[in-house]
Amino acid sequence: MTSMRPTGEWDGTTFAHEAFLFATDQEVLDRIVPFTVEGLSRGEPVLVVAGKRVRRLLAAELGQDVRRLATFAAAETWWRGGHGTLHAYDRDLRTLRSAAPTWRLVAEPVWLAREDGREWSRFEAVANRCYAAMPYYSLCLHDRRRLPTSVLDAVVRTHPLTWSGHAPVEAAAYEDPTRFLRSVQPEWDARPGHSAVWTVTAPQEARRALAAAVIDGWRERADDVVLATHELLTNALRVAPFVEVAFWTDHETLVVEVADTGPGLPDETRGYVPPAADLAGGRGMWLAWSLADDAAVASSPTGTAIRLYFRR
């Protein structure tokens, strides 16, 4: 008879990221309860951020032990958009890092069931890279009964671990974060013929041109468009003597493209990673991504082009 190993070979020194897909209440209990009890027995902080049904099941099963959890919170209140949610999550992780040598998290991103919450899969992918050295185990719960097939497909591609029934194992469908991001970003079609195009050598040039080009119907997004583009231009002009900026509208979407002839991005995930609090630079892509509604990257050793998408 094989004994259960809730965290497998995890030694508490690095990030472990598991997708647990369930279809019954009993499956939830069979996975979460041993995981939680093991953590409590080892003196590790155990955090639970889950939907109402999962919290009710766990509270009934743990009884008084639920008071020993470091956090027992409603996931329904956590969604602030992809960048806002990750920024708050990142702050909490760094606070934990300063207070505990290791911890474990049970998380149910209930917002994945909503159209506006599905971008979270991108941040799940990036977490594998930006939190690789964080000493915690993240057990992510995903309800097969509520989530569409497309979301479940993204789940298994963004988590390096899955559950075998008695221990976590490597997930066969897991993809490198950059590859996953490229597969879910907007299609990179040729610029339309009506695009406005400028070659600039200083961000101020593009700021003025863009501010003038944002036509009626888009005025409410003008500040976002100009500031996000300025951040990308500032980055691009550090690696190239000039930058090409293109601007066009496509039905309900305004698109800005910033293209340079530099050496390519060292890491295409940077727009999804919160910059460290003490980092003097490196905030440009994060800020630009957070101001836009979507983004796409085409990068190679001969240059980088980034498109930002703004909706009305």
UniProtKB/TrEMBL annotation:
Entries under Gene3D superfamilies matching the protein: Histidine kinase-like ATPase, C-terminal domain (3.30.565.10)
> NCBIfam families from the xrefs?
RsbA_anti_sig
Entry protein name: Anti-sigma regulatory factor, serine/threonine protein kinase
Q: Which PANTHER family match?
A: ANTI-SIGMA-F FACTOR RSBW, ANTI-SIGMA-F FACTOR RSBW-RELATED
Coiled-coil region list? none
Annotated Histidine kinase/HSP90-like ATPase domain ranges read 205-309
Per its UniProt entry, which superkingdom is the organism in? Bacteria
MF terms in GO? protein serine/threonine kinase activity
Q: Which intervals hold domain MEDS?
A: 17-160
Assigned keywords, A-Z: Kinase, Serine/threonine-protein kinase, Transferase
